[in-house]
Design a protein that fits this description.
5-stranded parallel sheet; Rossmann fold; alpha/beta
Length: 205
């Protein structure tokens, strides 16, 4: 199922997904739409636990982490005031990451087919934007953030994650996913322009 008015921005660490999600949300709101900026892991108790695990504050089995993502995503999409409810009410939702991240990252330590089965019934976004960038360049950006690195923020891991992303996108394109791959090394404003132009949303005011 494709969820109308739901859009997702994906990419490896440091690719600019958070920046673009926020900028595009601001622009669409300036156009007169009611656009909501969201993200995964969410800021729910489950999402906060996931972030602590990613920051190495806790250690859990890889299958446990994968199931936590599914639980967090279930509330994100289907919970009260979640993505589905907002989209059905005519709002636009742009998410910084979705289950494509799970397939790209968690498949490093968890069986891909298991992850696919656990996530295949979540609705597809109306359009997915993937910010493609070399891991060396993206991690250079991560280093500039001056924060404690997460468990996946290593060069060899990011190379595998980038490849996993492309494989997952190709698989879901065969199932009806509309994906747009954008050069993540372009200037920030150029990337934003490309995303907005592909959203096909014109100013209302």
């Amino acid at each position: 199922m494709i969820l109308k008015n739901f859009f997702v921005i994906e990419g490896i660490d440091g690719s600019g997904t958070t920046t673009q999600t926020k900028l595009c949300t601001e622009i669409l709101n300036s156009f007169g739409y009611n656009c909501i900026n969201t993200f995964e892991p969410t800021d729910s108790p489950i999402g906060k636990l996931i972030r602590k695990i990613l920051a190495s504050d806790y250690s859990v089995h890889s299958n446990t982490l994968a199931q936590l993502f599914v639980a967090d995503r279930t509330e994100h999409i289907y919970g009260r005031t979640g993505v589905q409810e907002n989209c059905m009410n005519g709002n636009i939702v742009i998410s910084d990451r979705y289950f494509f991240s799970t397939l790209a990252y968690q498949s490093l330590s968890t069986n891909y087919n298991q992850l696919f089965d656990d996530n295949k019934n979540f609705p597809l976004p109306e359009k997915l934007f993937f910010l493609k960038i070399d891991p060396e360049k993206s991690l250079a950006r991560v280093d500039q953030r001056k924060h404690k690195k997460e468990i996946f923020e290593k060069l060899e891991i990011q190379k595998k994650v980038a490849n996993n992303y492309l494989n997952a996108i190709k698989q879901f394109e065969e199932l009806g996913l509309n994906a747009v791959i954008i050069d993540g090394t372009l200037p920030i404003e150029k990337i934003t322009e490309k995303i907005i132009s592909n959203l096909d949303k014109k100013p209302k005011i």
